[in-house]
Design a protein that fits this description.
single chain; 397 residues; alpha/beta; Purple Acid Phosphatase, chain A, domain 2; six-stranded mixed beta sheet; globular; Calcineurin-like_PHP
Amino acid sequence: MTKQINVLTTTDLHGFIANDKPQPALALQGLKDKYPNSLLMDSGDFFVGNPLTTYFCDQYEVSPLVNYANRVGFDVMVPGNHDFDHGITYLKKQVKNLAAAYVCCNVFSEQNELIFPPYAIKEVAGIKIGVIGLLTSRMSMISDFDVTSGVIVKDALPELQKQVAALRDKVDLVLVGYHGGIERDLATHNEINYATGEDETFKLVSQTPGIDGFSCGHQHRVNQGKIKQTLVVQGGYQGNYYGHLTFSFDDQDKLVSRDEEIIKTSTLRAQSGDFYPEEDYQAWLQEKLDLSHLTEFLQEKFARRHLGIFINLKGQSRKEVIDSFTIPYGVRIYHLTQSEYQAFTKQDWAIKVEDYPAGARDFTVLTNSYEIPEYRLTDQFVDNIFDEYSYYLKQHA
């Protein structure tokens, strides 16, 4: 008689547990009840990612997301790059209150000490399961310096190989939760991303023998497949999908089969949330945001020589500021000719900073406006301006 172990995976929930509308992540409450002999793991970007999570950070010592995670019943969780957005002290405080093990093998302090345990060992139906946490190697490229101050993120591959080697003989299954994406098509193995080091699933798995299951994320994409004998799943965004890895063992606890699938969370029973007072959150959104340091923040964040800043705002409340920065690209940088620049600056701007040398004939502008020809676009940013500015205000209060 075979015994089946069910490994359930999520990633990039980004705190979407709002009370006022159906949220896929809320349906994860009770997920483990659907699967016997199960282990539930999350691959990062859990605590940060929308205005509600900024409210949690602003108003709560311990985020209501901790209560949510404990109620869902996560067994193991891994940090994502955005989980550091309010600083390492804030993240550690949340982790301290989690029932889940929080693991990562390549995040170190400046004293070269692991900040979190590299892995956790869990036993499910007599089967020992080792789960290793791993963060994208390129935190320095995608996070601001002050956010990661005091944190060193080492190259993922050698740290992963070290931990798999240490764990393999201690457990029946080795799993990895990786907050990074996939750089090659899982079926053809053709490259689909530039090799920036930010997304390395194929490289990590193909160069690290001994991994049974690998859950990744970061790109907000949905994927499943195998790399050699390793099952790989990537579970989307906001909890709209979850991964399901199955491992079957015989009477001698020998692994005899394995399989993977991605499942829509909408197939689960919809559930409501009661993790925070909705009226208080709505009142917080209507409060005026201190905008006196916004120019200073943008200048520091986008440190470029001779950069003009042109921002239109729908108002001064938090909600109006949030609505002023379009998702996914809150701000963009354009390079304009003199005539284009003169036409562009005729608009009325809430924030207008012109920083150019005398006699300039071309102009670089940072703006949240889309009313510029796309052929002048030189850079665009998915950064959450509201969230980062709110953290900036707290740090400079």
